[in-house]
């Protein structure tokens, strides 16, 4: 196995351990998960900090942007396409969020030297918007906004869904949200596509 392949394999084995243990993960645990001797970790990475930084850059990498959007079937209704996209994006955001929360809670400080961390996030965002734009383009004639603008707004809806989840206590296993309080991804997508006003109300207003 080449050095690059070995690095990639160790990073993949380390990511779930970081989400579980944060900075407290040991190189022994990492080696066991990767199926290698502990010394092999240090032949590929200078130390544990370098490995952790490589893991963070991996999840923030533009290559981790949701490229599955580009192969989404065009024959689906827009709401269905956006629902699939929304659920996949939220799942990815939660995985990254869980990882970063575990790291920050155990003393991790991002290495922003050289701006690589920031550039990776910005490039991932750009790729996501490009891919989302392709989702909207088949519906361009029926949209009130250009596809790229619609993509940017949809991304905002997905981001806001996570804040909504926090406000209603859905991220806190000890907090009991009131009945009917939960706002689902599909609720948000439905309002995004169809608006918050009922169709019959729109028709009534149109007759005035």
Number of strands: 0
Query: What is the strand content?
Result: under 5%
List the domain count as a whole number: 2
Query: Fraction of residues in helices?
Result: 55-70%
Number of helices: 9
- What is the H/E string? HHHHHHHHH
Keywords:
9 helices; mainly alpha; single chain; elongated; 208 residues; Arc Repressor Mutant, subunit A; 2 domains; 0% strand
Structural overview:
This protein is mostly helical and 208 residues long. The chain has 2 domains: 1-57, Orthogonal Bundle (Arc Repressor Mutant, subunit A); 61-172 and 179-200, no CATH class. It contains 9 helices and no strands. It has helices at residues 3-21, 27-34, 38-44, 48-60, 78-105, 116-136, 147-167, 185-194, 199-207. It holds the Pfam family TetR_N. Keywords: DNA-binding. Residues 4-63 form the HTH tetR-type domain. Residues 26-45 bind DNA.
């Amino acid at each position: 196995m080449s050095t690059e392949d070995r690095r990639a394999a160790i990073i993949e084995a380390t990511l779930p351990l970081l989400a579980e243990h944060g900075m407290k993960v040991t190189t022994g645990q990492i080696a066991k998960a990767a199926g290698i001797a502990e010394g092999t970790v240090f032949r590929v990475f200078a130390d544990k900090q370098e490995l952790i930084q490589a893991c963070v850059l991996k999840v923030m990498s533009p290559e981790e942007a949701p490229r599955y959007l580009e192969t989404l079937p065009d024959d689906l209704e827009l709401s269905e396409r956006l629902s699939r996209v929304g659920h996949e994006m939220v799942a990815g955001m939660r995985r990254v969020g869980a990882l970063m929360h575990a790291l920050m809670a155990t003393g991790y400080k991002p290495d922003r030297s050289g701006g690589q961390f920031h550039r990776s996030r910005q490039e991932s965002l750009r790729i996501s918007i490009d891919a989302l734009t392709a989702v909207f383009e088949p519906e361009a004639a029926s949209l009130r906004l250009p596809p790229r603008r619609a993509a940017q707004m949809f991304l905002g809806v997905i981001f806001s869904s996570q804040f909504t989840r926090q406000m209603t206590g859905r991220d806190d296993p000890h907090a009991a949200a009131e009945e009917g309080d939960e706002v689902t991804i599909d609720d948000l997508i439905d309002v995004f596509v169809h608006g918050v006003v009922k169709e019959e109300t729109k028709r009534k207003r149109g007759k005035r």
